[in-house]
Design brief:
globular, 8 helices, 5 strands, Lysozyme, mainly alpha
Length: about 170
C-alpha cells in the first residue's frame, strides 16, 4: 500500500522513484523497513537529539522553509522520503566497493538514511566492509547508538533490526 502510494506520488510530483534509478536500489521491503523504523509524521518536531525533523525522519534543512509545529502534506512527506532514500542509496553505491546481497544493501541504506552520508562514508564500518570483512558489520553498526551524546534505546533497537536485516535477511 505504501509503495503504491509512493509510486503514485512520484508520478504526480515528477520525481522518478528511487528504485528505478540504480542498478543497486532500495527494495520495496527496504523502503517499508525505513518507514517502519522512522515512523511517519506530518508535523515538524524535534527528534531525540533536538534536530527539527518531519515525515519519515527527514532532517529539516534551512532550504525546506519549515518551522517547528508546521504541518506538511502527505505528498511532501513522500517526496522528502524519496529524495532522502535516493541520497542514502547513492552513498552506499559510491562508498561501498564490495558486492552486497539485497538485504545487506537495504540494511546499509537504512543505516545511511539514519546517520547521514558523511558519517557513513567516513566510518570504520565502510573501511572494514570494503576490505571484505562482512563479519565486522554487526559490531560496527552496534556502535552507532548515541543521540546527543547519550545512548538511545530507540537507536539500539534500530541497529539490532539493521543487524538482523544485514546478517539474516529479516525485514
Amino acid at each position: 500500500m505504501i509503495i503504491r502510494l509512493l509510486m503514485l506520488v512520484s508520478v504526480l510530483v515528477g520525481v522518478t522513484p528511487v528504485y528505478a534509478q540504480h542498478t543497486n536500489h532500495l527494495s520495496y521491503k527496504g523502503m517499508n523497513f525505513i518507514i517502519k523504523h522512522e515512523g511517519m509524521r506530518r508535523d515538524v518536531y524535534r527528534d531525540i537529539a533536538g534536530y527539527l525533523t518531519v515525515g519519515a525522519g527527514h532532517l529539516v534543512l534551512p532550504s525546506d522553509n519549515l518551522v517547528e509545529g508546521q504541518i506538511i502534506s502527505e505528498e511532501r512527506v513522500y517526496n522528502l522520503l524519496l529524495k532522502d532514500t535516493h541520497e542514502a542509496s547513492k552513498a552506499v553505491d559510491n562508498c561501498i566497493t564490495v558486492s552486497l546481497l539485497k538485504n545487506q544493501y537495504d540494511a546499509l541504506v537504512s543505516f545511511v538514511y539514519n546517520v547521514g552520508v558523511g558519517a557513513f562514508c567516513g566510518s570504520t564500518l565502510v573501511k572494514k566492509l570494503n576490505q571484505e570483512n562482512y563479519a565486522s558489520v554487526p559490531t560496527q553498526l552496534s556502535r552507532w547508538v548515541y543521540a546527543g551524546g547519550k545512548k538511545a534505546k530507540g537507536l539500539i533497537n534500530r541497529r539490532n533490526y539493521e543487524i538482523k536485516l544485514f546478517t539474516k535477511g529479516v525485514y
